[in-house]
Amino acid sequence: MFLSNFILGAADPLIDWELFWSSIGPMVEGGIRNTIPLTLFSFTFGLILALLTALARLSGNKVLSGIARVYVSAIRGTPLLVQLFIVFFGLPDLGITLDPFPSAVIAFSLNVGAYASEIVRASILSVPKGQWEAGYTIGMTYPQTLRRIILPQATRVSIPPLSNSFISLVKDTSLASQILVVELFRKSQEIAARTYDFLQLYITAAILYWIVCFVLSLVQDRIEKKLDRYVAK
């Protein structure tokens, strides 16, 4: 009884429910207006870049393969926050000034592209070589074999790890608050700066991130179960 009274509204309540309900709206708004679009744009552009990078790595062209290797190594070997700062604060030194949101999209896309390219490359390599030979046997060219035979099979293999990357990206978008993107976590920071109730607001933000990631995990499980139907056992 004492704990219940303490939490729900005693003289020194553990949770300020008025603050809780008044802060949920702005945080959700920040998530809808910036966190979700930032995630979707970055992941989409990142996947395109990942496919191009993976194909470059697998090509016989040493120049393309070398460029792709350096790109992947540079991105994977540096912190994402540093990459964000380079794009937003560093590029103006070269006369390139970008708003916070596009800066974040560029940085996240480059990051996703590097990590996802290894997933895509491994998925393509997992397809038996006989599938390539089968395509050539019926008169398909390399691009046709890749598009019609190899990539559909590689997609099925790559979806689980790419889904994990997507969920991780949702959480990583909180770093965009450091370059003034008003997303979910930035909203919690702004409210905390006014109320000085940092613990409650940051825990609230964490719960909202967890809910989003939990829902995405359920969607991922459903997709994987559907794909299992097409896997020989």
Automatic annotation (TrEMBL):
- What are this entry's molecular-function GO terms? L-cystine transmembrane transporter activity
Q: Where is the signal peptide?
A: none
Q: Say which domain of life the source belongs to.
A: Bacteria
| Assigned keywords, A-Z | Amino-acid transport, Cell membrane, Membrane, Transmembrane, Transmembrane helix, Transport
Chain ranges passing through the membrane:
36-58, 70-91, 199-219
**Listed GO CC annotations:** ATP-binding cassette (ABC) transporter complex
Main localization (coarse): membrane
Domain called ABC transmembrane type-1: residue spans: 32-220
Question: Chloroplast as a keyword?
Answer: no
Does this UniProt record's set of keywords contain Membrane? yes
Q: Topology relative to the membrane, per the entry?
A: Multi-pass membrane protein
Pfam families annotated for this entry? BPD_transp_1
InterPro entries linked to this entry: AA_ABC_transptr_permease_3TM, ArtM/GltK/GlnP/TcyL/YhdX-like, MetI-like, MetI-like_sf
Subcellular location(s): the record lists:
Cell membrane
State the similarity comment.
Belongs to the binding-protein-dependent transport system permease family.
- What NCBIfam families does this protein map onto? HEQRo_perm_3TM
Name-wise, this protein is Cysteine ABC transporter permease
Q: Per the UniProt entry, what species is this protein from, by scientific name? A: Jeotgalibacillus alimentarius
